[in-house]
Amino acid sequence: PEFLRVSTEKGVGRIELRRPKVLNALNRRMVAELVEMLESFDREDTVGAILLTGGPKAFAAGADIDEMAGATAAEMLTMDPFADWDRIRRVSKPIVAAVNGYALGGGCELAMACDLIFASETARFGQPEIDLGVMPGAGGTQRLTRAVGKARAMEMVLTGKPITAKEAYAAGLINRVVPAEVLEEEAMKMARELASKPPVALRLAKRAVQRAAEIGLEAGLDYEQKLFYFLFSTEDQKEGMQAFMEKRRPEFRGK
Ligand code: HXC
Protein backbone atom coordinates (compact mmCIF):
# COMPACT_ATOMS: atom_id res chain seq x y z
CA PRO A 1 0.00 0.00 0.00
CA GLU A 2 1.06 3.56 -0.76
CA PHE A 3 -0.44 5.35 2.26
CA LEU A 4 -0.28 2.69 4.97
CA ARG A 5 2.37 0.86 6.90
CA VAL A 6 1.23 -2.61 7.82
CA SER A 7 2.59 -5.36 10.07
CA THR A 8 1.47 -8.30 12.17
CA GLU A 9 2.70 -9.16 15.63
CA LYS A 10 1.49 -11.62 18.24
CA GLY A 11 -2.01 -12.01 16.88
CA VAL A 12 -2.50 -8.29 16.21
CA GLY A 13 -2.68 -6.74 12.75
CA ARG A 14 -1.24 -3.23 12.90
CA ILE A 15 -2.12 -0.50 10.41
CA GLU A 16 -0.50 2.92 10.46
CA LEU A 17 -1.96 5.74 8.35
CA ARG A 18 0.93 7.36 6.52
CA ARG A 19 0.40 10.55 4.59
CA PRO A 20 2.23 12.82 7.00
CA LYS A 21 2.67 15.84 4.70
CA VAL A 22 -1.07 16.48 4.79
CA LEU A 23 -1.69 15.25 8.34
CA ASN A 24 -3.06 11.95 7.05
CA ALA A 25 -5.87 13.59 5.07
CA LEU A 26 -7.89 10.64 3.86
CA ASN A 27 -8.03 10.54 0.09
CA ARG A 28 -10.04 7.87 -1.67
CA ARG A 29 -6.99 5.75 -2.43
CA MET A 30 -5.98 5.69 1.23
CA VAL A 31 -9.47 4.72 2.39
CA ALA A 32 -9.60 1.97 -0.23
CA GLU A 33 -6.23 0.65 0.95
CA LEU A 34 -7.36 0.81 4.56
CA VAL A 35 -10.59 -1.07 3.90
CA GLU A 36 -8.77 -3.74 1.93
CA MET A 37 -6.22 -4.19 4.71
CA LEU A 38 -8.89 -4.39 7.41
CA GLU A 39 -10.77 -7.01 5.40
CA SER A 40 -7.63 -8.97 4.78
CA PHE A 41 -6.82 -9.04 8.52
CA ASP A 42 -10.43 -10.02 9.12
CA ARG A 43 -9.89 -13.13 6.97
CA GLU A 44 -6.46 -13.99 8.43
CA ASP A 45 -6.76 -16.74 11.05
CA THR A 46 -3.60 -15.77 12.92
CA VAL A 47 -4.95 -12.25 13.55
CA GLY A 48 -7.40 -11.80 16.44
CA ALA A 49 -7.58 -8.03 16.72
CA ILE A 50 -6.51 -4.95 14.76
CA LEU A 51 -4.66 -1.82 15.86
CA LEU A 52 -5.17 1.34 13.79
CA THR A 53 -2.93 4.33 14.37
CA GLY A 54 -1.74 7.53 12.70
CA GLY A 55 1.21 9.88 13.07
CA PRO A 56 2.52 11.93 15.99
CA LYS A 57 0.75 15.12 14.89
CA ALA A 58 -2.42 13.64 13.44
CA PHE A 59 -4.40 10.45 13.51
CA ALA A 60 -6.15 11.96 10.49
CA ALA A 61 -7.16 15.58 9.82
CA GLY A 62 -10.23 14.54 7.84
CA ALA A 63 -11.20 13.63 4.34
CA ASP A 64 -8.89 15.10 1.68
CA ILE A 65 -10.37 18.56 1.09
CA ASP A 66 -8.40 19.12 -2.14
CA GLU A 67 -9.89 15.97 -3.59
CA MET A 68 -13.52 16.93 -2.82
CA ALA A 69 -13.43 20.70 -3.25
CA GLY A 70 -14.59 20.86 -6.88
CA ALA A 71 -17.06 17.99 -6.84
CA THR A 72 -20.72 18.45 -7.70
CA ALA A 73 -23.49 16.73 -5.74
CA ALA A 74 -24.09 14.39 -8.68
CA GLU A 75 -20.40 13.45 -8.73
CA MET A 76 -20.35 12.81 -4.98
CA LEU A 77 -23.45 10.65 -5.28
CA THR A 78 -22.11 8.57 -8.14
CA MET A 79 -18.59 8.25 -6.67
CA ASP A 80 -20.23 7.43 -3.34
CA PRO A 81 -17.07 7.53 -1.22
CA PHE A 82 -19.03 6.33 1.80
CA ALA A 83 -19.66 2.93 0.25
CA ASP A 84 -16.06 2.09 1.24
CA TRP A 85 -16.56 3.52 4.73
CA ASP A 86 -19.55 1.23 5.23
CA ARG A 87 -17.27 -1.76 4.79
CA ILE A 88 -15.29 -0.72 7.90
CA ARG A 89 -18.41 -1.29 9.98
CA ARG A 90 -18.60 -4.87 8.76
CA VAL A 91 -15.11 -5.86 9.90
CA SER A 92 -15.90 -8.51 12.47
CA LYS A 93 -12.70 -8.48 14.55
CA PRO A 94 -12.26 -5.70 17.10
CA ILE A 95 -10.33 -2.62 16.01
CA VAL A 96 -8.47 -0.52 18.58
CA ALA A 97 -7.71 3.05 17.47
CA ALA A 98 -4.60 4.72 18.91
CA VAL A 99 -5.13 8.45 18.41
CA ASN A 100 -2.31 10.97 18.65
CA GLY A 101 -2.90 14.60 17.71
CA TYR A 102 -5.78 15.57 15.42
CA ALA A 103 -8.78 13.34 14.78
CA LEU A 104 -10.95 15.74 12.81
CA GLY A 105 -13.85 15.32 10.43
CA GLY A 106 -13.42 12.00 8.66
CA GLY A 107 -10.52 11.31 11.07
CA CYS A 108 -12.83 11.54 14.06
CA GLU A 109 -15.40 9.46 12.18
CA LEU A 110 -12.78 6.84 11.41
CA ALA A 111 -11.79 6.63 15.08
CA MET A 112 -15.47 6.30 16.01
CA ALA A 113 -15.89 3.49 13.50
CA CYS A 114 -13.29 1.57 15.53
CA ASP A 115 -14.38 -0.37 18.62
CA LEU A 116 -12.10 1.05 21.30
CA ILE A 117 -10.29 4.39 21.24
CA PHE A 118 -7.06 5.07 23.11
CA ALA A 119 -5.80 8.64 22.90
CA SER A 120 -2.76 10.59 23.93
CA GLU A 121 -3.20 13.62 26.19
CA THR A 122 -2.60 15.88 23.19
CA ALA A 123 -5.27 14.33 20.97
CA ARG A 124 -8.14 16.49 19.69
CA PHE A 125 -11.48 15.21 18.46
CA GLY A 126 -13.74 17.34 16.32
CA GLN A 127 -16.17 17.64 13.43
CA PRO A 128 -15.09 20.89 11.75
CA GLU A 129 -17.01 20.26 8.51
CA ILE A 130 -19.45 23.08 9.26
CA ASP A 131 -16.69 25.61 8.58
CA LEU A 132 -16.17 24.12 5.13
CA GLY A 133 -19.82 24.65 4.30
CA VAL A 134 -20.69 20.99 4.73
CA MET A 135 -21.46 18.63 7.60
CA PRO A 136 -20.15 15.27 8.83
CA GLY A 137 -20.86 12.55 6.29
CA ALA A 138 -19.20 9.36 7.49
CA GLY A 139 -21.21 8.81 10.67
CA GLY A 140 -20.27 11.97 12.55
CA THR A 141 -23.80 13.07 13.35
CA GLN A 142 -24.91 9.54 14.24
CA ARG A 143 -22.02 7.85 16.06
CA LEU A 144 -20.96 10.98 17.90
CA THR A 145 -24.49 11.61 19.17
CA ARG A 146 -24.85 8.05 20.39
CA ALA A 147 -21.43 8.22 22.07
CA VAL A 148 -21.57 11.60 23.81
CA GLY A 149 -25.28 12.46 23.86
CA LYS A 150 -27.23 15.13 22.06
CA ALA A 151 -26.05 18.22 23.95
CA ARG A 152 -22.36 17.65 23.36
CA ALA A 153 -22.74 16.33 19.81
CA MET A 154 -24.92 19.24 18.77
CA GLU A 155 -22.34 21.70 20.05
CA MET A 156 -19.43 19.94 18.36
CA VAL A 157 -21.19 19.52 15.02
CA LEU A 158 -22.67 23.02 14.90
CA THR A 159 -19.63 24.94 16.15
CA GLY A 160 -16.95 22.74 14.60
CA LYS A 161 -14.84 23.25 17.70
CA PRO A 162 -12.77 20.23 18.74
CA ILE A 163 -12.63 18.78 22.23
CA THR A 164 -9.55 17.60 24.12
CA ALA A 165 -8.79 13.98 24.90
CA LYS A 166 -9.72 14.61 28.53
CA GLU A 167 -13.10 16.02 27.51
CA ALA A 168 -13.62 13.15 25.08
CA TYR A 169 -12.93 10.72 27.89
CA ALA A 170 -15.30 12.46 30.29
CA ALA A 171 -18.00 12.45 27.59
CA GLY A 172 -17.63 8.72 27.00
CA LEU A 173 -16.24 9.02 23.47
CA ILE A 174 -12.98 7.25 24.20
CA ASN A 175 -11.66 4.49 26.44
CA ARG A 176 -8.33 5.81 27.76
CA VAL A 177 -6.18 8.91 27.85
CA VAL A 178 -2.48 8.16 28.24
CA PRO A 179 0.80 10.06 27.80
CA ALA A 180 1.89 10.10 24.15
CA GLU A 181 5.03 8.07 24.91
CA VAL A 182 3.03 5.04 26.00
CA LEU A 183 0.04 5.34 23.65
CA GLU A 184 1.14 2.71 21.17
CA GLU A 185 2.23 0.33 23.90
CA GLU A 186 -1.04 0.62 25.84
CA ALA A 187 -3.21 0.28 22.75
CA MET A 188 -1.17 -2.71 21.62
CA LYS A 189 -1.55 -4.31 25.03
CA MET A 190 -5.32 -3.99 24.73
CA ALA A 191 -5.30 -5.36 21.17
CA ARG A 192 -3.25 -8.35 22.31
CA GLU A 193 -5.61 -8.99 25.16
CA LEU A 194 -8.55 -8.98 22.74
CA ALA A 195 -6.64 -11.30 20.41
CA SER A 196 -6.41 -13.84 23.23
CA LYS A 197 -10.19 -14.03 23.65
CA PRO A 198 -12.35 -16.81 22.18
CA PRO A 199 -12.65 -15.64 18.55
CA VAL A 200 -16.25 -16.56 17.77
CA ALA A 201 -17.66 -15.11 20.97
CA LEU A 202 -15.51 -11.99 20.49
CA ARG A 203 -16.89 -11.34 17.02
CA LEU A 204 -20.50 -11.88 17.97
CA ALA A 205 -20.13 -9.77 21.11
CA LYS A 206 -18.70 -6.94 19.00
CA ARG A 207 -21.54 -7.23 16.54
CA ALA A 208 -24.15 -7.22 19.28
CA VAL A 209 -22.74 -4.06 20.90
CA GLN A 210 -22.67 -2.41 17.47
CA ARG A 211 -26.30 -3.35 16.96
CA ALA A 212 -27.21 -1.63 20.23
CA ALA A 213 -26.38 1.65 18.58
CA GLU A 214 -28.07 0.74 15.32
CA ILE A 215 -31.48 -0.51 16.33
CA GLY A 216 -34.18 -0.02 18.96
CA LEU A 217 -34.05 -1.75 22.34
CA GLU A 218 -36.52 -4.55 21.69
CA ALA A 219 -34.94 -5.66 18.44
CA GLY A 220 -31.50 -5.25 20.01
CA LEU A 221 -32.30 -7.44 23.00
CA ASP A 222 -33.81 -10.05 20.72
CA TYR A 223 -30.71 -10.06 18.55
CA GLU A 224 -28.44 -10.31 21.60
CA GLN A 225 -30.40 -13.29 22.96
CA LYS A 226 -30.15 -15.19 19.67
CA LEU A 227 -26.39 -14.70 19.49
CA PHE A 228 -26.03 -15.79 23.10
CA TYR A 229 -27.95 -19.02 22.49
CA PHE A 230 -25.97 -19.66 19.32
CA LEU A 231 -22.65 -19.55 21.21
CA PHE A 232 -23.69 -22.72 23.04
CA SER A 233 -23.03 -24.55 19.78
CA THR A 234 -19.30 -23.72 19.99
CA GLU A 235 -16.56 -25.80 21.60
CA ASP A 236 -15.12 -22.61 23.07
CA GLN A 237 -18.24 -22.15 25.19
CA LYS A 238 -17.90 -25.68 26.58
CA GLU A 239 -14.18 -25.19 27.15
CA GLY A 240 -14.57 -21.73 28.73
CA MET A 241 -17.20 -22.81 31.22
CA GLN A 242 -15.54 -26.15 31.93
CA ALA A 243 -12.21 -24.43 32.61
CA PHE A 244 -13.90 -22.01 34.99
CA MET A 245 -15.39 -24.86 37.00
CA GLU A 246 -12.07 -26.70 37.01
CA LYS A 247 -10.24 -23.50 38.07
CA ARG A 248 -7.81 -23.65 35.14
CA ARG A 249 -7.06 -21.38 32.16
CA PRO A 250 -9.21 -22.11 29.09
CA GLU A 251 -7.73 -22.99 25.72
CA PHE A 252 -9.83 -21.44 22.98
CA ARG A 253 -9.71 -22.79 19.42
CA GLY A 254 -12.22 -20.68 17.53
CA LYS A 255 -14.50 -23.67 17.07
C1 HXC B 1 -6.34 18.18 2.72
C2 HXC B 1 -5.12 18.87 4.53
C3 HXC B 1 -6.17 18.50 5.40
C4 HXC B 1 -7.35 17.94 4.82
C5 HXC B 1 -4.56 19.30 6.59
N1 HXC B 1 -4.14 19.36 5.32
N2 HXC B 1 -5.80 18.80 6.67
N3 HXC B 1 -5.21 18.70 3.21
N4 HXC B 1 -7.38 17.80 3.48
N5 HXC B 1 -8.39 17.56 5.56
C6 HXC B 1 -2.84 19.83 4.82
C7 HXC B 1 -2.74 21.34 4.83
O1 HXC B 1 -3.36 21.87 3.67
C8 HXC B 1 -1.26 21.54 4.80
O2 HXC B 1 -0.79 21.29 3.51
C9 HXC B 1 -0.76 20.39 5.68
O3 HXC B 1 -1.82 19.42 5.67
C10 HXC B 1 -0.47 20.81 7.09
O4 HXC B 1 -1.64 21.44 7.60
P1 HXC B 1 -1.63 22.90 8.26
O5 HXC B 1 -3.00 23.42 8.14
O6 HXC B 1 -0.51 23.72 7.70
O7 HXC B 1 -1.27 22.54 9.77
P2 HXC B 1 -1.72 23.32 11.09
O8 HXC B 1 -1.61 24.80 10.88
O9 HXC B 1 -0.94 22.70 12.19
O10 HXC B 1 -3.27 23.00 11.29
C11 HXC B 1 -3.69 21.67 11.52
C12 HXC B 1 -5.21 21.59 11.32
C13 HXC B 1 -5.59 22.12 9.92
C14 HXC B 1 -5.95 22.39 12.41
C15 HXC B 1 -5.60 20.11 11.47
O11 HXC B 1 -4.75 21.47 8.95
C16 HXC B 1 -7.00 21.90 9.53
O12 HXC B 1 -7.89 22.59 9.97
N6 HXC B 1 -7.25 20.93 8.62
C17 HXC B 1 -8.56 20.66 8.07
C18 HXC B 1 -9.42 19.94 9.08
C19 HXC B 1 -10.82 19.69 8.51
O13 HXC B 1 -11.54 20.63 8.17
N7 HXC B 1 -11.20 18.42 8.40
C20 HXC B 1 -12.52 18.05 7.87
C21 HXC B 1 -12.38 17.70 6.44
S1 HXC B 1 -13.96 17.35 5.70
P3 HXC B 1 0.33 22.25 2.82
O14 HXC B 1 0.44 21.71 1.44
O15 HXC B 1 -0.21 23.62 2.93
O16 HXC B 1 1.54 22.03 3.68
C22 HXC B 1 -14.30 15.78 6.14
C23 HXC B 1 -15.61 15.23 5.63
C24 HXC B 1 -15.89 13.87 6.16
O17 HXC B 1 -13.56 15.11 6.79
C25 HXC B 1 -16.36 13.01 5.08
C26 HXC B 1 -15.63 11.68 5.09
C27 HXC B 1 -15.36 11.15 3.69
UniProtKB/TrEMBL annotation:
GO terms for molecular function: hydro-lyase activity. InterPro entries: ClpP/crotonase-like_dom_sf (IPR029045), Enoyl-CoA_hyd/isom_CS (IPR018376), Enoyl-CoA_hydra/iso (IPR001753), Enoyl-CoA_hydra_C (IPR014748). GO terms for biological process: fatty acid beta-oxidation. It comes from the Bacteria. SUPFAM superfamilies: ClpP/crotonase. Keywords: Lyase. Pfam families: ECH_1. Belongs to the enoyl-CoA hydratase/isomerase family. This is Short chain enoyl-CoA hydratase.
